[in-house]
């Protein structure tokens, strides 16, 4: 591969540097394209456009590879914990015991939110979507920690902010659930680790303590690890875009949560279950829905299928499918939606439309089966994705704010509107 790429426009030739990443990915640096040629590029959805260089996560869509700081996701899902991979993503290395203990202790120290914030929950109607509440609450945290509302901060302050956000997001999520079912809030406990603490806040009540089951803790740990980062996806790109204006981490993550809410992104895990329930209620006629998904005149999509990057298989979907099987077997649960999902996957992967477009189950296709088995309500499925993605968002925001090459994000456009015209008075208008 030469050092430069040549672009010939008319009778002019322009040269731009070629960049090669550590995994031999190639890019053409077109930073000077407009100043040299007056041209810009147009790339709807940015499928061919890199926004930045990053050392956090690598994925190869053709080979189904996903690694956090070089560690394969399969090993991390099996052997690591959510707190440990959060440290890995944010600080670039697996923590030693002392570092892990200090990180965990900081989570415990900052697991509570200010008591006044309970009033916020009381003001929401019971039907408010928990993603709206989560985004608002994360942004509202900035009102209680003014010394953390900055874009550039010391490593110590950032360390505390990262641990505090990772810890408090659980508390906010659980409080929003308790509010929605009219039960009293259950506070975080210092004697419980990350996942058991969340489950206890969600499902314990003064009348009945929650029995923390090892298989449930493991399944939720696997899901959180698998959702922790995914390079420049829509919500992470949103976090980086908002942070590029030197907005603080609370604001950047609050925006990322709202981007994740969309059914084409993190909201898909909720949409998958809604789709499966609708198919089930309509007689489970798979061919009818496969055909609807292929019919361009219908707005029906096979939710949980397809991916911008993975064109072979989503490595996370394979692990989650097995995890769902294992958990339901251990819990003695038979969920007809799991059988339906498997049959739908099998039917789609035999259909030329899906095979030719390389559409396979993604991370959202089976995750909802596990959330259902645990008892997490449907509208909280995207919240579970947000809890998982928190370390990734934090890691990318910090990487972006510390990169001297970072500039405020400001894409260009090709204007297709009216040419210049003079104002006319209202009497002259048709
Ligand atoms: C996540 O980016 C990430 O990394 C995201 C994520 C992460 O960890 O952050 O992995 C998490 O968001 C996973 C995706 C969850 N969303 C869904 O499951 C929603 C259903 N999937 C689709 O909407 C779609 O596949 C996307 C949004 C995921 C990807 O969209 P692309 O890359 O823009 O693909 P496309 O829309 O251009 O589709 C290409 C073709 C089109 O048909 P043709 O125009 O070629 O005829 O495939 C078709 C699409 O119509 N297609 C589908 C389909 N997905 C794509 N047809 C039916 N059902 C689908 N699900």
Any descriptors?
18 helices, three-stranded antiparallel β-sheet, Rubrerythrin, domain 2, mainly alpha, binds s-citryldethia Coenzyme A, Citrate Synthase, domain 1, Cytochrome p450-Terp, domain 2, 3 domains, about 425 residues
In short:
This protein has 430 residues and is mainly α. Helix content is 50%, strand content 7%. A three-stranded antiparallel β-sheet has the order 1-2-3. A three-stranded antiparallel β-sheet has the order 4-5-6.
Number of strands: 6
Oligomeric organization of the protein chains:
single chain
Largest sheet: 3 strands, antiparallel
Q: Which second-level CATH architecture of the largest domain applies?
A: Orthogonal Bundle
Shape: globular
Distinct ligands, ions and cofactors found in the model: s-citryldethia Coenzyme A
CATH superfamily of the largest domain: Citrate Synthase, domain 1
Ordered list of secondary-structure elements with their pairings:
Elements: E1 4-9, E2 12-20, E3 26-28, H1 33-37, E4 57-60, E5 65-68, E6 71-72, H2 73-79, H3 82-91, H4 97-109, H5 118-123, H6 130-141, H7 155-180, H8 194-203, H9 214-226, H10 234-243, H11 249-261, H12 268-281, H13 286-294, H14 315-331, H15 336-348, H16 352-356, H17 364-374, H18 381-402
Antiparallel strand pairs: 1-2, 2-3, 4-5, 5-6
Helix pairs in contact: 2-9, 3-18, 4-7, 6-7, 6-11, 7-8, 7-18, 9-14, 9-17, 9-18, 10-11, 10-18, 11-18, 12-17, 14-17
Residues 45, 230, 233, 264-266, 268, 293, 301-309, 357, 359, 362-364 line the site of s-citryldethia Coenzyme A (SDX).
């Amino acid at each position: 591969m030469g050092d430069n790429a040549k672009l010939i426009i008319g009778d002019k030739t322009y040269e731009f540097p070629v960049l090669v990443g550590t995994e031999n990915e190639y890019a053409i640096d077109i930073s000077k394209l407009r100043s040299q040629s007056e041209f810009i590029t147009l790339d709807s959805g940015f499928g061919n456009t890199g926004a930045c260089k990053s050392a956090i996560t690598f994925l190869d869509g053709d080979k189904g590879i996903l690694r956090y700081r070089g560690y394969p996701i399969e090993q991390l899902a099996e052997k690591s914990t959510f707190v440990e991979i959060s440290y890995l993503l944010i600080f670039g290395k697996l923590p030693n015991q002392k570092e892990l203990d200090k990180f965990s202790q900081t989570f415990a120290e900052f697991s509570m939110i200010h008591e006044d914030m309970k009033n916020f929950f009381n003001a929401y109607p019971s039907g408010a979507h928990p993603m709206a509440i989560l985004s608002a609450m994360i942004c509202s945290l900035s009102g209680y920690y003014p010394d953390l509302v900055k874009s550039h901060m010391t490593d110590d302050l950032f360390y505390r902010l990262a641990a505090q956000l990772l810890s408090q997001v659980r508390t906010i999520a659980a409080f929003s659930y308790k509010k929605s079912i009219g039960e009293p809030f259950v506070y975080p406990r210092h004697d419980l680790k990350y996942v058991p603490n969340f489950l206890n806040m969600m499902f314990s009540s003064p009348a009945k303590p929650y029995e923390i089951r090892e298989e449930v803790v493991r399944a939720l740990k696997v899901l959180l690890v698998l959702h922790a980062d995914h390079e420049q996806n829509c919500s992470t790109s949103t976090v980086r875009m908002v942070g590029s204006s030197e907005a603080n981490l609370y604001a950047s993550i609050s925006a990322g949560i709202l981007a994740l809410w969309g059914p084409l992104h993190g909201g898909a895990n909720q949409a998958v279950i809604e789709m499966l329930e609708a198919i089930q209620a309509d007689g489970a006629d798979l061919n009818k829905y496969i055909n609807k998904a292929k019919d361009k005149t219908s707005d029906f999509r096979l939710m949980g299928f397809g991916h911008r990057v993975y064109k072979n298989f989503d490595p996370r979907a394979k692990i989650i499918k097995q995890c769902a099987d294992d958990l339901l077997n251990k819990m003695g649960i038979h969920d007809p939606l799991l059988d339906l999902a498997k049959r739908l996957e099998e039917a789609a992967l035999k259909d030329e439309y899906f095979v030719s477009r390389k559409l396979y189950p993604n991370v959202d296709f089976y995750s909802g089966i596990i959330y259902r088995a645990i008892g997490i309500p449907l509208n909280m499925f995207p919240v579970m994705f947000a809890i998982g993605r928190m370390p990734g968002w934090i890691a990318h925001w910090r990487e972006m704010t510390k990169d001297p090459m970072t500039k405020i994000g400001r894409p260009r456009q090709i204007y297709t509107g009216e040419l210049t015209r003079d104002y006319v008075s209202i009497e002259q208008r048709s």
